Automatic annotation (TrEMBL), chain A:
Listed EC numbers: 1.2.4.1
UniProt cross-references to Pfam families, sorted A to Z: E1_dh
InterPro entries to which the protein is assigned, alphabetical: Alpha-ketoacid_DH_E1_comp, DH_E1, PdhA/BkdA, THDP-binding
Keywords, alphabetical: Oxidoreductase, Pyruvate, Thiamine pyrophosphate
Biological source species: Alicyclobacillus ferrooxydans
Protein name stated in the entry: Pyruvate dehydrogenase E1 component subunit alpha
From TrEMBL, chain B:
InterPro entries tied to this protein: THDP-binding, Transketo_C/PFOR_II, Transketolase-like_Pyr-bd, Transketolase_C
Gene3D superfamilies hit by this protein: 3.40.50.920, 3.40.50.970
Entry cofactors: thiamine diphosphate
Residue ranges of domain Transketolase-like pyrimidine-binding in the record: 4-179
This protein's UniProt keywords: Oxidoreductase, Thiamine pyrophosphate
Taxonomic lineage of the native organism: Bacteria, Bacillati, Bacillota, Bacilli, Bacillales
Protein name in UniProt: 2-oxoisovalerate dehydrogenase
Length: 358, 325
């Protein structure tokens, strides 16, 4: 691998071509057959959950949802390169990474519906809830990473944004702070080429997004974001480098979202051509990896059906649990504002409980 | 005990807390080797090390993002925004992020951080240095806002703020940094957050002020006393939340009130104070609650700031009016 600091043009890193053939053996990660199968299982699981989430959202059974279909390789390949105690600062589309880092489907459904308890992540899950303010997760990542460095913990902070997010000030401040303090952080840009309706060409005149790393003086790589093995390999190298005390990395994953921006009324046919969508369907990350595994006799139609069945059952169970979950209340909302409630809030709480001594 | 200016008291508070708690971190632009543009952090890096007291790149949002991340991981960051007029750069990380962390994660993560920042007029600073922007954070759920008016309170309130487990905005009036000396204990002590302080007792009029206006109000009250009229002056200390109980107790005695602030009429805390007085003490009032403030303009260029900021004559005239209505 070489960085944009060393070459004129950012290299485009790929392990598998669209037929599932290994085109770059030197980048091929050393993964067991079980792990390879697990990566496929996670991608299929995510695709099914995504398809169901879109339907559930239309039925009003889910709230806010940003479809992830098409981006499974960049999301799951990068998350799989982490340790359990590494910390994820996700954007709002990055639900799959959280689900495989310890969030459960019930909490995700509660979060989507706007329930506070969806975001109370387990103590042993190291992640923040999806960030709505684009770029803020990049500004916070150096803080998490500096905490690990100060305590001498061999942990890494990883964060995600989209192509549009690279235009934010916080994007640059985040990578620059991490560089200046030599922090164990990995910054991922999932370039799905559209920020709602605005194509990446309108975000910047830069030829790649990975080369924005040059402005922070840190390594940057552009990766085939629909190639899970390339995403895993490049993220793993960045994570290892960070863990060894050698600073942050920026990774651009070139990918495409099959669905709309969010389920809140976005219609991608207004800004994307059928030709472009067809072109990217040919690059479906699941198809490519399935071909690779089938060639190695590691994946069958039966395996695939089993994952689909599991995903549907797990989601149905989670929906039942979420439906039965107690509703939020104003007093509990007030209680979550401060450790020690100011008198003014105590008074306001009593207005909702009808008790003076709230 | 030692005689200290407010800047020395602040330096001493940081020194004491850095010594007592290894999770306390002090950082910002020029706070490390240089000891801060006002020397608030002078000597702290040398004493406590570069891992505890350090300089950052010049980017306020980055500084507050760093603080938010560190706070989420259990550190107690005390970041500095060099002048509070620059807070707009960091507005999302304070109001959009740190202030909401406990709520949005249902307590899984908290932000025990203190944003220290100088503000305040009367020292001929360039643009965007002196603006009184505390009102923005009075309107931000999830943060406390503290403004000390003297060295003793500055140290005690800053230690309380650092030990508090939620975000605190700690605003330091530049004109007060070196203009008063007071007895300040060398060891750690706290002044409670959320509590106002009656700095002058009186039975005829309640004057509510904070920051440099406390001293202006005290001067006016002394003038008023020459005529046999006694104003009670309350130093608010905490701008958010407002200690309405102390204010109401005073109004029950005086039956008249006014608010003095350095922020513009529609900014600051005055409107909120008056609204709360209306809710809690209207039947104890014999007249309307006035506010003495600068006009609703941008903070002026240095040449006219002394006319723009309320002085003791203007406050005295306000007192006369409040007593006559």
């Amino acid at each position: 691998m070489s960085t944009v600091l060393e070459t004129e043009k950012t290299p485009y890193l790929q392990v598998l071509n669209k037929d599932g053939d290994v085109v770059n053996p030197s980048l091929m990660p050393d993964l067991s057959n079980d792990t390879l199968r697990e990566l496929m299982r996670r991608m299929v699981f995510t695709r099914i959950i995504d398809q169901r989430a879109i339907k559930l959202s239309r039925q009003g059974r889910l709230g806010f949802y940003a479809p992830a279909g098409g981006q499974e390789a960049s999301m799951i390949g990068s998350q799989a390169a982490l340790n359990k105690d590494d910390f994820i600062l996700p954007g709002y589309r990055d639900i799959p990474q959280l689900l495989f880092h310890g969030w459960n489907l019930t909490q995700w459904i509660l979060f989507s519906r706007g329930h506070q308890h969806g975001t109370a992540m387990p103590q042993d899950m190291h992640a923040l809830l999806p960030q709505i303010i684009i770029g803020a997760q990049y500004a916070q990542t150096p803080g998490i990473a500096m905490a690990f460095k100060l305590r001498g913990e061999k942990r890494v902070a990883i964060t995600y944004t989209g192509d549009g997010g690279t235009s934010q000030g916080d994007f640059y401040e985040g990578i620059n702070f991490a560089g200046a303090f030599n922090l164990p952080a990995v910054f991922v840009v999932q370039n799905n080429q559209f920020a709602i309706s605005v194509p990446v060409e309108l975000q910047t005149a830069a030829e790649t997004l990975a080369q924005k790393s040059v402005a922070a003086g840190i390594p940057g790589y552009q990766v085939d974001g629909n190639d899970i093995l390339a995403m895993y390999a490049v993220t793993k190298e960045a994570v290892d480098r960070a863990r060894a005390g050698n600073g942050p990395t920026l990774i651009e994953a070139l990918t495409f979202r099959f669905g709309p921006h969010t389920m809140s009324g976005d219609d991608p046919t207004r800004y994307r051509t059928k030709e472009l969508e067809n072109e990217w369907e040919q690059k479906d990350p699941l198809v490519r990896f399935r071909k690779f595994l089938e060639q190695k006799k590691l994946w069958s139609e039966q395996d695939e059906e089993q994952v689909m069945e599991d995903a549907k059952n797990e989601l149905n169970d989670a929906l039942k649990q979420a439906d039965a979950y107690p509703k939020m209340t104003i007093p509990s909302l007030i209680d979550s504002m401060f450790e020690v409630l100011p008198d003014s809030l105590k008074r306001q709480k009593s207005e909702y409980t009808g008790k003076e001594d709230a | 005990m030692a005689q200290m200016t407010m800047i020395q008291a602040i330096n001493n508070a940081l020194d004491v807390e850095l010594g007592l708690n290894k999770d306390v971190l002090v950082f910002g632009e020029d706070v490390g080797h240089n000891g801060g543009v006002f020397r608030a952090t002078d000597g702290l890096q040398k004493k406590h090390g570069k891992d505890r007291v350090f300089d950052t790149p010049l980017a306020e949002s980055g500084i507050m993002g760093l603080a938010t991340g560190l706070a989420m991981q259990g550190f107690r960051p005390v970041p500095e925004i060099q002048f509070f007029g620059f807070v707009f750069e960091a507005m999302d990380e304070i109001a959009g992020q740190a202030a909401r962390m406990r709520y949005r994660t249902n307590g899984r993560f908290t932000c025990p951080l203190v944003v220290r920042s100088p503000f305040g007029g009367g020292v001929k600073t360039p643009e965007m240095h002196a603006d009184s922007l505390e009102g923005l954070f009075l309107q931000t759920p999830g943060v406390r806002v503290v403004i000390p008016s003297n060295p003793y309170d500055a140290k005690g309130l800053l230690i309380s703020a650092i030990r508090n487990n939620d975000p605190v905005i700690f605003l330091e009036h530049m004109k007060l940094y070196r203009s008063i000396r007071a007895e300040v204990p060398e060891e750690a002590y706290t002044v409670p957050l959320d509590k106002a302080n009656v700095v002058r007792e009186g039975k005829d009029l309640t004057v509510i002020a904070y920051g440099a206006m406390v001293h202006t109000a005290l001067k006016s009250a002394d003038e008023l006393a020459k005529r046999g009229v006694q104003a009670e002056v309350i130093d608010l200390r905490s701008i958010s939340p407002i200690d309405i109980d102390t204010i109401v107790t005073s109004i029950k005695k005086t039956h008249r009130a006014m608010v003095v602030q350095e922020a513009q009429r529609s900014a600051g805390a005055a409107a909120e104070i008056i609204a709360q007085i209306n809710e809690h003490a209207i039947y104890h009032l014999e007249g309307p609650v006035l506010r003495i403030t600068p006009p609703d303009t941008v903070y002026p260029f240095a040449q006219i700031e002394d006319e723009w900021i309320p002085d003791s004559k203007q406050v005295l005239a306000g007192m006369d009016k409040a007593l006559s209505l």
